[in-house]
Amino acid sequence: MESNAVLATLQPNYNILSPSRFYSSSSSAATTFLSVFYPQRTRFSPPQYLKLDKQVLASASCRYAHEVKSPFKNAAVLSDSYSSEASKLADIEWDNLGFGLLPTDYMYMMKCSQGGNFSKGELQRFGNIELNPSAGVLNYGQGLFEGLKAYRKEDGNILLFRPEENALRMRQGAERMCMPAPTVDQFVEAVKETVLANKRWVPPPGKGSLYIRPLLMGSGAVLGLAPAPEYTFLIYVSPVGNYFKEGVAPINLIVEHELHRATPGGTGGVKTIGNYAAVLKAQSAAKAKGYSDVLYLDCVHKKYLEEVSSCNIFVVKGDVISTPAIKGTILPGITRKSIIDVARSQGFQVEERFVPVDELLDADEVFCTGTAVVVSPVGSITYKGKRVSYGVDGFGAVAQQLYSVLTRLQMGLIDDKMDWTVELS
């Protein structure tokens, strides 16, 4: 589950680098880069692009000057043909990574017709994709996405964290959205190939991670309301930094009791793209008032906690940790699931149940979980004009303990007794 909404508070100076916005008025390399990376977009006028960091631009220009004519079909070919380039770390300032898109070398793509099965996909250079204006994903929102990370160990090997869980969640979401989906094995192998193809973009140990974004979309043209006739599965990656490298900044939430993220029988329990557009209005209003994000209540009783815009929530009281039960309106976060298991292994009692909003008033700690941030402490929650604070100096004791155990496991710093990581060499 993605916690992008939380991140502005945790690390306010992100340098968001979107490929469609690249522009540098001061560097002649910009024209070369744009013509290679986006050959159909070089006619755009300069104002449509943000100024590109010179160091990133230089790295990208060098990268595309060595264009490989044909994509690699599998990891074995990649290992033979790309080892000299992939073995070297990208020449970027790893200490200055934020959570923004930094274009890497390759993306993975495979297609499937409605009612069919996905066949073997392939790697291709990262860049724009072409869609019919009547594509199902554009007209009717028939799309899902996932998010996971890869970490580099001290020995140079790379760890993936629970990729099969993302595969299973995508398949569950696809069933709800009337879409075919890759098998678990296809998903995991595609992730492996994509990460290996972009190995030089996995940050050095302790400097961050490689964020992996799998997409499943109705790419076929359809005018009437119906499932699309064709589907595309795509994976791209981007290196991202550590969120707490400059100190932890607890987030401040406001409880929303009029607008709702999801309804019973809807799609709140799957990671469909429409779930995220639906929270933007309330989130934008909250940020305009100085809050970090919005905490939603159930739409029936308007009294039970559900989740924040893009992450799950936990309430701590003594040795008991409570979190809203998964009941169709809450996304089953993989970080949420992992934190629950870690907490129980550490001796905490974890309850998955209906959590009344009033319990926030008496809580010892509150924290959120998501793929991007892992664990984010909540500094305060405002409900109907009343503000409750839980500390402003960083993690509470429980959140700190769980964050430390999970992140050390993800980075390979402790033994993986859970059997959650997949190691790539």
What does this protein look like?
Its EC number is 2.6.1.42. One of its GO terms (biological process) is branched-chain amino acid biosynthetic process. GO terms for molecular function: L-isoleucine-2-oxoglutarate transaminase activity; L-leucine-2-oxoglutarate transaminase activity; L-valine-2-oxoglutarate transaminase activity. Its cofactor is pyridoxal 5'-phosphate. The modification N6-(pyridoxal phosphate)lysine is found at residue 271. The protein has 425 residues and is α+β, with helices and mostly antiparallel strands. It folds into two domains: 106-240, D-amino Acid Aminotransferase, Chain A, domain 1 (2-Layer Sandwich), CATH 3.30.470.10; 251-415, D-amino Acid Aminotransferase, Chain A, domain 2 (Alpha-Beta Barrel), CATH 3.20.10.10. 26% of the residues lie in helices and 24% in strands. The chain has eleven helices and 19 strands. It has helices spanning 4-10, 29-37, 54-65, 75-86, 136-140, 163-176, 184-197, 274-277, 280-288, 334-345, 397-410; strands at residues 22-23, 50-51, 106-113, 122-125, 143-145, 148-152, 158-161, 209-218, 230-240, 251-256, 293-297, 305-308, 312-317, 320-324, 349-353, 365-370, 374-383, 386-389, 421-424. Strands 10, 11, 12, 13, 14, 15, 16, 17 and 18 form a nine-stranded mixed beta sheet that branches. Strands 3, 4, 5, 6, 7, 8, 9 and 19 form an eight-stranded antiparallel beta sheet that branches. Strand 6 and strand 7 form a beta hairpin. Helix 2 (29-37) crosses helix 3 (54-65), helix 4 (75-86) packs parallel to helix 7 (184-197) and helix 6 (163-176) packs across helix 7. The longest helix has 14 residues, at 163-176. The protein is globular. Mean pLDDT is 84; it is low at 1-77.
